């Protein structure tokens, strides 16, 4: 009987459980053994494993997080760590390894592939949507939905007080969340990696203050979506600059990890299920060294090399639409 191993790694993303469920059920259907490793690559290094058939996988479907737990694992950045992970795979006579995670996790999978010659398959699991080879990553839809609902509430109070609000969203170093959430919430300004560089901070503050002045004569509130890890000094520093130079009482909110958790959207559950099933099919079809994603409605395979080495650009149409048509009245 073929033995398949699976683990979830890096930042957890909603609907990782849906992918685990699909993989476990598909393995059962095809009479394959399915072994889960806990805590990302740590569980592979320390041999913390579970027979996936023994987990109550169905009841996990509607929950965020991951029943296999997730973690970042420093040991994987050394050759010894990678070798230890490979030893565990050999010890259990694993035939194929599926890793659900972001670009770091897929780099880890590539490192394993260099020392372990059996099949490796990646699934795109990150809220950031920063992986080439799939239109959407598993978890992105839920993160955008959660952030949109939270910001809609902030907008209510911003409207009531005719107040400027800065909301910082996640995304690590990409603006997929910032632009999708910013456009969905009708933000007056989006500050993200695609339209801002750190040396433009003073120019940006002046530009925003002018736009706020114009906005005051239409409807009162002014919403700024800020990508994390971008503004020098963070959202607090932006707030202080606006308040000082514009004599404002703007407020700031960092949405943080609420974007990573919660019940996954049906879109995320179904994407995770489809990709989970496809990963087991790929193993049965002797595929190797690939990530499985979905582009334009079709399940696609991309080499790990191409996923890792080709940055996924944000649709420039989205960036331009926001800066031109959707905020023309603020110019
Ligand atoms: N270059 C690398 N070589 C080996 N393992 C890596 C490498 N980069 C990341 N990893 C492993 O993948 C884990 C998750 O990566 P990280 O970048 O934190 O999250 P994500 O996979 O969500 O992008 C890391 O903690 C580490 O164990
Ligand atoms: O929870 P941590 O370890 O502070 O990491 C925060 C980072 O994780 C994320 O939520 C998800 O990123 P990854 O999927 O690449 O791990 C990022 O948006 C954020 O920058």
Automatic annotation (TrEMBL):
Keyword vocabulary terms for this entry: ATP-binding, Cytoplasm, Glycolysis, Kinase, Magnesium, Metal-binding, Nucleotide-binding, Transferase
InterPro entries xref list: ATP_PFK (IPR022953), ATP_PFK_prok-type (IPR012003), Phosphofructokinase_dom (IPR000023), PKF_sf (IPR035966)
Phosphofructokinase domain segment(s): 3-283
Pathway: Carbohydrate degradation; glycolysis; D-glyceraldehyde 3-phosphate and glycerone phosphate from D-glucose: step 3/4
A GO biological process held by the record: fructose 6-phosphate metabolic process
A GO term, aspect molecular function: identical protein binding
Catalytic activity: beta-D-fructose 6-phosphate + ATP = beta-D-fructose 1,6-bisphosphate + ADP + H(+)
EC number: 2.7.1.11
Cofactor: Mg(2+)
GO-annotated cellular components: 6-phosphofructokinase complex
Keyword field contains ATP-binding: yes
UniProt subcellular location: Cytoplasm
NCBIfam families: PRK03202.1
Membership in a protein family: Belongs to the phosphofructokinase type A (PFKA) family.
Protein name: 6-phosphofructokinase
Species in which this protein is naturally found: Pseudoalteromonas holothuriae
């Amino acid at each position: 009987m073929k033995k398949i191993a699976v683990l979830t790694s890096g930042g957890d993303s909603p609907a990782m459980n849906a992918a685990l469920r699909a993989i476990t059920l598909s393995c059962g259907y095809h009479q394959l053994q399915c072994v889960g490793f806990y805590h990302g690559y740590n569980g592979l290094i320390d041999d913390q494993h579970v027979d996936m058939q023994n987990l109550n996988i169905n009841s996990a479907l509607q929950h965020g997080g991951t029943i296999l737990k997730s973690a970042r694992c420093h040991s994987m950045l050394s050759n010894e760590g990678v070798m230890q992970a490979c030893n565990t795979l050999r010890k259990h006579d694993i035939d194929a390894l599926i890793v659900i995670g972001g670009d770091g996790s897929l780099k880890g999978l590539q490192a394993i592939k260099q020392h372990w010659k059996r099949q490796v398959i990646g699934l795109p699991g990150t809220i950031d949507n920063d992986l080439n080879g799939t239109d959407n990553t598993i978890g992105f839809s839920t993160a955008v939905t959660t952030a949109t609902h939270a910001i809609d509430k902030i907008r209510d109070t911003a409207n009531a007080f005719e107040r400027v609000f800065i909301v910082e969203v996640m995304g690590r170093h990409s603006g997929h969340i910032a632009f999708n959430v910013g456009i969905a919430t009708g933000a007056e300004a989006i500050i993200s990696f695609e339209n801002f560089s750190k040396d433009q901070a003073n120019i940006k503050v002046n530009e925003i203050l002018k736009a706020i002045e114009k906005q005051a004569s239409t409807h009162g509130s002014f919403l700024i979506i800020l990508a994390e890890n971008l503004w020098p000094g963070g959202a607090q520093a932006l707030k202080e600059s606006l308040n000082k130079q514009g004599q404002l009482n703007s407020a700031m909110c960092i949405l943080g990890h609420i974007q990573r958790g919660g019940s996954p959207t049906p879109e995320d559950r179904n994407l995770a299920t489809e990709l989970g099933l496809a990963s087991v099919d790929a193993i049965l079809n002797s595929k190797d060294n690939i990530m499985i994603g979905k582009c334009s409605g079709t399940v696609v395979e991309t080499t790990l090399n191409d996923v890792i080495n080709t940055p996924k650009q944000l649709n420039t149409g989205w960036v331009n639409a926001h800066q031109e048509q959707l905020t023309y009245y603020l110019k």
